[in-house]
Amino acid sequence: MDFEIENPDQMDVEELVAKPIHREPPTIHRLDEAVVNRIAAGEVIQRPVSAVKELLENSIDADSSSISVLVKDGGLKLIQVSDDGHGIRYEDLPILCERHTTSKLSKFEDLLSIKSMGFRGEALASMTYVGHVTVTTITKGQLHGYRATYKDGVMEHEPKACAAVKGTQIMIENLFYNMSARRKTLQNSADDYPKIVDLICRFAIHHISVNFSCRKHGAARADVHSVATSSRLDAIRSVYGVSVAQNLMEVEVSEDDPSSSIFEMDGFISNSNYIAKKITMVLFINDRLVECGALKRAIEIVYAATLPKASKPFIYMSIKLPPEHIDVNVHPTKREVSLLNQEVVVEKIQSAIESKLRNSNESRTFQEQRVDPSPSVSISMSKESSSHPSSSGSKSQKVPVQKMVRTDSQDPAGRLHAYLQVTPSSQLKGSSRLASIRSAIRQRRNPRETADLTSIQELIREIDSSCHSELLDIVRNCSYIGMADDVFALLQHNTHLYLANVVNLSKELMYQQVLRRFAHFSAIQLSDPAPLPELIMLALKEEELNTEGDENDDLKEKIAEMNTEMIKQKAEMLEEYFGIHIDQNGNLSRLPIVLDQYTPDMDRVPEFVLCLGNDVNWDDEKICFQTIAAAIGNFYAFHPPLLPNPSGDGMQFYQRVPSRTPEEGDASKSADDANKDEVEHELLLEAESAWAQREWSIQHVLFPSMRLFLKPPTSMATNGTFVKVASLEKLYKIFERC
């Protein structure tokens, strides 16, 4: 609100009076149609690659077998897309670039069965509002073609007869000529042409019956040139190269359950040999190039357990669903779609990829040459192939799957001697061969590998040896139903129902992950470094050791001081091995990422720091690592939030308690009833958010991660972590009898 001060020179500061200026509300008016269209055009055509995508889809809808793209200055000066499709009828040219003119549908219900790429009739119109568009086309049977120019959705003059080749050529010049801010931004960007090339590459490996080419204006050679082929893998090899194609595996999954989901998926995924710094995911749903964040995250979780650190996969995937199960009209640029039963589809695909990767370990093996003992042992590594005969003339024996070299950088436990294919020789010492192989593989996987410490190997061997096979099957193949209470989740495995303690499960999962990620942690950066003494004092006060006032505070300060000094002395080791950074002043500034896409409850940081000081045995290496991992596991576990659950009896915690004197007696009872509805709304909202976030994380982060990583120990079979509560078969028989 604006204020006006009258005669400020004649008044003292205390006498100044602010008077509000009353203004009339602004008038609402209808925008000019040209303004509306230009605003809409800026949303549909966001940058040059958006225009290219729309034109490519139009060409594919026109049954083209060859599409060529010509680009000048990243698409700002010129975009030209030519195809050999069925062309555009002469009678349709006058309304071609008007908004909402299309040949793809005639009524809204047609969207339920739409199969074409375009349907809105907005793309060409939008281009005419932000650029100069020229269309040249010829249809089958015509002796000559026609050329027309368009501006602001209107054809500027009658189509002119011209020489033309089969199909349509659409040329956009001076894109964003009337949007100076966007044009200047794009002129300073050097990635528009690479984006166009990447887009055409994606179309080329899906539409393998179409020839694609793309080149810069004035260049003699095309940057993309793909020819029609019958093999998807050949198309990938042609576009992305041999190094990508030779490291791909075919994957297929389908579901035909009307009550759950109906879909078919086929594609190619990279194996463990593929190494890249950036994920490449090409996803087509019903032949539409789209993005799906949920599916991408699910696949990245699976690959996190397979690829070397900092490597990303290559994914090509084509999903087919009934047209009525997909909503294509959810994004201005059609970049996203909405799927019926999306969560089920994503889970099925994730499981199929996980299974494929588990069974593909044999694609990465290491062989050793037979050499004389010498200080420098020659070791060669290559893919295992049955077509390569050994020196004795017989084929090399295939290494069993369980003996293959592990490629999971997050599980660098070593034990590589158990995986090697040994050539019998009385002249070679096993120890020298093992040392050389370990060195070669360590350089290939990670030059900073430090998880070969004997203590870490022993701890992970203990996890492997104590794994309960039946519980492992339950964890890997269970279905999450929901939370039964604050601690127990309800699971179904086959026909049995179980209650599972999510706190115990998550604590064990985090403990195992800490050991597997040993010395390979990413970091959570705290916005403000937290002083260790203050954190420890907070934890001690929460514990309420005793109630002796000042003496108790003195004791707490001594404990905090001693623990702080101890942790500061071990700061270098904590940072190198566990990703916990503590500066010279005793401030905690970084914490490790134990599980991707999960951040622990920061309210438990004081308790965690106190555990580091009190519970860790710093004298014995193995016990030290074990207790630190246990402390981190307890910190990262899915504990119930500190605020009581508002959905149960905890609701009374959020009700305001009215203050009253003893003299008021029974007269205040009616007031009590009136105050029952008064609650601390801000605190209640915070609690509801915390509990809802926890349940979401349990379902979408904890259980998917457990299926991949957790090896439940035998103790969980007897300590109440898993409780079998029902058998659906028995219940069904009881119901039948009733």
What's this entry about, in short?
By secondary structure, the chain is of the alpha+beta class. It is built from 21 helices and 25 strands.
How many extended strands?
Answer: 25
The residue-averaged pLDDT reads: 77
Spatial extent as radius of gyration: 33 Å
Shape: elongated
How many helices? 21
Low-pLDDT segments: 365-450, 545-551, 667-676
End-to-end Cα distance: 73 Å
GO molecular function: ATP binding; ATP hydrolysis activity; ATP-dependent DNA damage sensor activity; mismatched DNA binding
Keywords: Coiled coil, DNA damage, DNA repair, Nucleus
InterPro entries: DNA_mismatch_repair_CS, DNA_mismatch_S5_2-like, HATPase_C_sf, Mlh1_C, MutL/Mlh/PMS, MutL/Mlh/Pms-like, Ribosomal_Su5_D2-typ_SF, Ribsml_uS5_D2-typ_fold_subgr
Coiled coil: 538-572
Plain-language structure description:
- The protein is an alpha+beta fold and 738 residues long.
- The radius of gyration is 33 Å and the shape is elongated.
- Helix 2 runs parallel beside helix 5 and helix 11 packs across helix 18 (621-636).
- Strands 3, 4, 5, 6, 7, 8, 9, 10 and 11 form a nine-stranded mixed beta sheet that branches.
- The protein is built from 21 helices and 25 strands.
Q: Which features characterize this protein?
A:
single chain; 738 residues; alpha+beta; 9-stranded mixed sheet; 5-stranded mixed sheet; 21 helices; 18% strand
What's the layout of helices and strands?
Elements: E1 3-4, E2 19-20, H1 33-44, H2 48-61, E3 66-72, E4 78-83, H3 123-130, E5 132-138, E6 145-151, E7 154-155, E8 160-162, E9 167-173, H4 180-187, H5 192-206, E10 211-216, E11 224-226, H6 232-240, H7 242-245, E12 248-257, E13 261-270, E14 280-285, E15 288-290, H8 293-304, E16 314-320, E17 326-327, E18 338-339, H9 342-358, H10 430-445, H11 454-465, H12 469-477, E19 479-483, E20 488-493, E21 496-501, H13 502-516, E22 523-531, H14 532-543, H15 550-569, H16 571-578, E23 581-582, E24 587-592, H17 605-614, H18 621-636, H19 669-675, H20 681-709, E25 722-727, H21 728-737
Parallel strand pairs: 3-10, 14-16
Antiparallel strand pairs: 1-2, 3-4, 4-9, 5-6, 5-9, 6-7, 6-8, 10-11, 12-13, 13-16, 14-15, 17-18, 19-20, 20-21, 21-25, 22-24, 23-24
Helix pairs in contact: 1-3, 2-5, 5-6, 8-9, 11-18, 13-18, 13-20, 14-15, 14-17, 15-17, 17-18
Protein name: DNA mismatch repair protein MLH1
Biased composition (Low complexity): 372-403
Domain DNA mismatch repair protein S5: 236-358
